[in-house]
Here is the input.
Amino acid sequence: MSDSKKFSSVMFNLENKEGVVTPLCVEGLHDPDPLARASGIWISSAGSAMLPVGEFPLKQREDWVWLAVQSGTVNLVDLGSNFTMKVREGAIIPPYTHGSKLVCEQESRILWMAVKGPLVEQFMQSMGAISRKPLKQGVLPSQLKLARNAVQAAVRAQAAAQAGASAQLQQLLWAMLASHSGQPVAMNAVLSHEIAKVLDEMHKHQYKNSYSLSDMAEISRMPVETFRKRFVSEVGMPPQSYQLHCKMERAKVLLKDGLSVKQTGVEVGMKDPYHFSKTFKNIVGMSPSKYWKTTLE
Here is the structure.
């Protein structure tokens, strides 16, 4: 137990104490090349961790952290936030966040990326971050896959100073933003023309229209069940779940722009304010009115 390296982590504030349960971490640091630095934003580190039952304090960092839950359930607790993240949910943690910790009541697995650079705040706001508080986020399957690839690239870059690592990490970072913004990003290779048509149709109308499964299948020119299976295979989640995720991300943008809760609901195709507010809170972790107030802080 005297080997302090055993407990070293970029992400977690771990103490070298007898009997303390520690997470199993795989982490990589990235020293960006001149082109990445010139872009104004880059992934500074990335990692994954298997968390046993317990509490795990996070280090106070100078960069932003995007975090996602792969399996299990994780509570994020700090001085001003307390929310639960399940599979395909996560959080954005601003820099210099003090006193944050992850609490697990069951074994869980997480992925995370730390992002840095002079343009990082604008980038993270585009990813849905607000003010200086950790914020719960929905996470798309494509984003989970991109994050896994980023962890692998960062670990290889640190281990072998791999040429081209910065370029690969930059591509993955911008693909994360594209996926978050509703642009077609495939789970494997590229999306088929049929599925891309459906995603483009949703995006074209800024998610104001609400498409049934039959509507989407008609746009793709495929039978309903064939379309559903193809969509899940390529995008990684059911069509209606994807549509709802995009609507809520659009709603966050509109609320930050100053629209009222009622107006925002109308703009994302939910004219009933109660239904919109309930759906928003279930996905984002706070009501639309609280989210709007938080953007003003």
